[in-house]
Specification:
Elements: H1 3-37, H2 40-61, H3 64-70, H4 76-108, H5 113-120, H6 122-139, H7 143-167, H8 172-193, H9 207-238, H10 241-275, H11 280-307, H12 309-316, H13 325-350, H14 354-374, H15 379-405, H16 410-415, H17 418-440, H18 445-466, H19 470-482, H20 492-503
Helix pairs in contact: 1-7, 1-10, 2-4, 2-5, 2-6, 2-9, 2-10, 3-6, 3-9, 4-5, 4-6, 4-9, 6-8, 7-8, 9-10, 9-14, 10-11, 10-13, 11-13, 11-17, 11-18, 11-19, 12-18, 13-15, 14-15, 17-18
Length: about 500
C-alpha cells in the first residue's frame, strides 16, 4: 500500500477501534436493560421482522454501496446516479413491503408481525436517502467522522429513546422506534458531512457500471443473508417467536462482540483491498496478515465465551434466559469461523470475482439447509450445530477459492489459524479451571463472571504479546510500526518498545 493509503488505513483502525469499544460497552448495557424490560417474544417478533426487511434490503440497495466504494474512477454523474437509484428504490420497496407485510406474517403464522414490518419499512426510504453519503465517507476512508456519527446516533436512539420507551411499557415498539431513529440520525449526519448533489441523473450511461457490479453484489449479499438467516426463518416458522427469541439472544451474545471486534477491520479492509486489487502478491500478503491477527483474537474470545456461557447469560440477559446457554456454547465456535472466513469474501468483492462467490454461496445454502433438516429433532441446539458444521464447510470452500484467486497454498491458509487455535485452547482451559473452582464453591455469579473475564483477558494478552506464536511475531512487528510505535526515540516509552521488539517480536 502507498504511504497515504496506509496512513488512512491506520487512522481508520484507530478511530474504528475506539468507536468499537465504545459501542460494545453501550450495546452490552442496552441489551442487558432491554432483556429485563421486555419478554423473549418481543425479540422474536423483531427478529422475524428484521429477516423480512433484510430480505428486501438487498433488492432495495442493489449493491450500490459497494459499487461506489469499489469503482476505481468515480465521476460526479456516478454519484448522482447512485443517489437517484437509491432514492427511487427506497420509495418503491417501502410501498411494496407495506402491501406485502400481511402475507409475510401469514408465512410465519403470527399476525403481530404485520404492523411491525409496515412501520419498519420506512427504513428503506431512510436508507435510500443516506446510502450515497455513507458510501462516499467509506470510500474516502473518513472513519473518524463515521465513528462520531454512529456513536452519537446510537446514544440518542438506543440508550436514550429505546430504554425510556421500554420503561414506559411501549413493549416491542420501543425496539422499532429506536432502530428507525438511529437510522434517521445517521442519515442526517452523513449528508451533513458529504453534501453531494441530489439532482436526479436522467442519462442512463452512468448507471451501467454501478449496476453491473452492484447487482451481482446484491445477489451475493442476498445469498449470504439466506444462509445466515435460515435458522431464524425456520425457528420462527416451526418453533414460534418464544424459541426464536431464545435463539436470537444467544446468537447476539456471541455475534455482537465478534462484530464489534471485526467491524473496524472490515470497514477499512474493503476500500484498502479495492485500491490494490491488481497486485495479487501484495493482496495475498495483506490477506494472510489480516487473518492471522484476527484469528488470534476472535478464536480465543469465542472459546472463552463458550466456557463462560452460563454466567454470561445470567449477567447480561437474566435468569429467565437459561435455555439459551447450550445454544450459545455451540454457536460461539461457529460464529468465530464465520467472522474470519468473511475476509475471503471481501477479497472476492474487491477483485470483482463475483461469479465464483455466487456459486459458493448457493452450495453453502444447500449444505446448511440440509443440516438444519437433519438436525431439526435436536431443537435449538441442533440448529446451532448445523451452523457450526456449515461454517467448517464454508471455510474449506473459501480456501479453494483463495487458492485460485490469490495463488495461496492450502498449507499457508491453514497455518494462519494455528496461533488463534492454540491461544483459544489455553484461554478456554484457564477459564474452565477458574469457573470449576468458583462454581463448586457457590460463588456469586457476578464474581464468577468477573473472574472469568479477567482470566481470559490476562491470558490472551500474555499469550499474544509476551509469548506470541512465531507466526504472530512479524505481524505484531508490523502493527507496532504502522501505529507509529517504532521505538526509535529517546523517551522511556520508546526504549521500552524497542526492548520489547528486540526480545519478543524478532522474526521467527
Amino acid at each position: 500500500m502507498s504511504k497515504n493509503l496506509a496512513s488512512k488505513a491506520v487512522s481508520g483502525l484507530k478511530w474504528g477501534s475506539a468507536s468499537t469499544i465504545a459501542n460494545a460497552v453501550m450495546q452490552i448495557g442496552y441489551t442487558s436493560a432491554m432483556a429485563r424490560l421486555l419478554a423473549p417474544e418481543a425479540f422474536g417478533l423483531v427478529a422475524i421482522s428484521s429477516v423480512i426487511l433484510r430480505f428486501g434490503s438487498y433488492f432495495a440497495n442493489m449493491g450500490l454501496t459497494k459499487a461506489l466504494v469499489q469503482k476505481e474512477e468515480l465521476e460526479p454523474q456516478h454519484i448522482r446516479a447512485a443517489f437517484t437509484a437509491s432514492l427511487v428504490l427506497g420509495l418503491l420497496f417501502t410501498g411494496i413491503t407495506w402491501l406485502l407485510a400481511p402475507f409475510a406474517a401469514d408465512f410465519f403464522g403470527n399476525p403481530d408481525v404485520t404492523p411491525i414490518v409496515q412501520v419498519m419499512a420506512l427504513s428503506f426510504l431512510i436508507s435510500g436517502v443516506s446510502v450515497t453519503s455513507l458510501s462516499l465517507l467509506e470510500r474516502d476512508m473518513r472513519f473518524k467522522l463515521i465513528s462520531i456519527i454512529e456513536m452519537a446516533a446510537y446514544v440518542i436512539s438506543y440508550l436514550g429513546a429505546g430504554i425510556v420507551l421500554a420503561y414506559l411499557d411501549f413493549g416491542v415498539w420501543s425496539l422499532i422506534y429506536a432502530t428507525l431513529l438511529q437510522a434517521t440520525l445517521s442519515a442526517i449526519g452523513a449528508y451533513a458531512a458529504v453534501r453531494h448533489s441530489v439532482v436526479p441523473q436522467l442519462n442512463l450511461a452512468p448507471y451501467k457500471p454501478l449496476f453491473s457490479y452492484g447487482s451481482r453484489m446484491s445477489f451475493i449479499s442476498l445469498l449470504e443473508f439466506l444462509s445466515q438467516e435460515f435458522g431464524t426463518i425456520l425457528i420462527g416458522r416451526v418453533l414460534g417467536s418464544y424459541k426464536l427469541g431464545l435463539y436470537n439472544r444467544a446468537y447476539m451474545l456471541v455475534n455482537l462482540p465478534m462484530y464489534m471486534l471485526t467491524r473496524t477491520f472490515t470497514k477499512v479492509v474493503f476500500p484498502s483491498f479495492s485500491k490494490i486489487q491488481n497486485d495479487i502478491q501484495k493482496l495475498g500478503r495483506i490477506y494472510l496478515s489480516s487473518i492471522t491477527l484476527l484469528a488470534a483474537i476472535v478464536i480465543p474470545a469465542c472459546f472463552g465465551i463458550s466456557v463462560a456461557a452460563p454466567e454470561l447469560v445470567r449477567i447480561v440477559l437474566g435468569e429467565q434466559w437459561g435455555e439459551s446457554v447450550p445454544v450459545l456454547q455451540v454457536l460461539s465456535i461457529g460464529i468465530a469461523l464465520s467472522f474470519i472466513t468473511m475476509f475471503a469474501g471481501i477479497v472476492c468483492d474487491a477483485k470483482a470475482v463475483l461469479n465464483i462467490k455466487i456459486v459458493l454461496n448457493v452450495v453453502f445454502i444447500l449444505v446448511i439447509g440440509g443440516l438444519f433438516y437433519l438436525l431439526r429433532e435436536f431443537g435449538l441446539v441442533g440448529f446451532a450445530f448445523a451452523v457450526l458444521i456449515g461454517e467448517l464447510v464454508r471455510m474449506a470452500m473459501y480456501q479453494r477459492v483463495m487458492h485460485r484467486v490469490l495463488e495461496l497454498s492450502y498449507r499457508q491458509q491453514l497455518s494462519i489459524y494455528l496461533p488463534g487455535v492454540l491461544n483459544g485452547v489455553l484461554v478456554a482451559g484457564g477459564i474452565y479451571l477458574v469457573s470449576s473452582l468458583l462454581r463448586s464453591a457457590d460463588t456469586p455469579v457476578a464474581i464468577t463472571f468477573a473472574a472469568q473475564a479477567l482470566t481470559g483477558g490476562v491470558l490472551l494478552l500474555v499469550l499474544t504479546l509476551l509469548f506470541p506464536h512465531k507466526l504472530l511475531r512479524a505481524e505484531l512487528q508490523m502493527v507496532f510500526n504502522k501505529m507509529g510505535m517504532s521505538g526509535n526515540g529517546d523517551s522511556p516509552i520508546s526504549r521500552i518498545i524497542q526492548k520489547y521488539k528486540v526480545h519478543i517480536l524478532k522474526e521467527a
